[in-house]
Amino acid sequence: MALTALIQARPVDAAEEGFCVPDDPLQALMAGNRRFADAWRLALQENRATLRTTDPDPRCFNSPRALATSQRPWATVLTCSDSRVSPSWVFDTTPGDLFVIRNAGNSAFDEAIASVEYSVSVLKTPLVMVMGHSGCGAVTAAMDDKPLTPSLERLIHPIEETISGSSNLAEAVRRNALATASTLIQRSSALAEANSSGALKLVVGYFELTTGVVTLIK
């Protein structure tokens, strides 16, 4: 959905459209947190990293006590704010695994670059993935000529420069993600040094919503 459509959106019957929309969003959000907190309390009783061996691919759950005072994420993901593109869901990870930076269009704004620098320089995450996705609204808006608010215009301007000449959305999303990865290295000496020394592995991915598959494109 283009960002212009979001601005002009009218209410729809969400149930008829196939979406689950709670009557009280805040209540639903807090209920989800209570479910998480219940599991968290059970994990606290163990006070250690826990390997769940019942999974086909066993996952290790970090100790809640350890996470209360520190973090040691093993990957950083810079991706879109799109509600369908949650890295913790896409990569089936647990709390403390991922350091996540999100903005519409997964662009390398100053704040995003600084956040990646923090994850690599301070938290020592060895892997950074820039991930675009199919049906990206920000990239769609950048390909369109419909008027946007001044803030949205500033948001998509770097995307427009990156994808100039693209007529295919999937191609444009990939070009934008690749450009973001290049910008991280070009504008940050700390990331460039980490990348050249081998302390950092920088990759670019494309998440296809119809299949749930993330494909590496760099």
Write the layout of secondary structure elements.
Blueprint: H1 3-7, H2 25-46, E1 50-52, E2 59-61, H3 64-69, E3 75-79, H4 87-90, E4 98-102, H5 110-121, E5 127-133, H6 137-143, H7 150-163, H8 169-187, H9 189-197, E6 201-208, E7 213-216
Parallel strand pairs: 3-4, 3-5, 5-6
Antiparallel strand pairs: 1-2, 6-7
Helix pairs in contact: 6-7, 8-9
Number of strands: 7
Mean pLDDT: 88
The strand line-up of the biggest sheet is 4-3-5-6-7
Low-confidence stretches at least 5 residues in length (pLDDT < 50)? 1-12
Structural class: alpha/beta
What is the helix fraction of residues, given as a range? Answer: 40-55%
Largest pleated sheet: 5 strands, mixed
The succession of helices and strands, N to C, reads HHEEHEHEHEHHHHEE
**For the CA atoms, what is the radius of gyration?**
19 Å
- Helix count equals 9
The amount of beta strand, in percent, is 15-25%
Span between N and C termini? 26 Å
Spatial shape:
globular
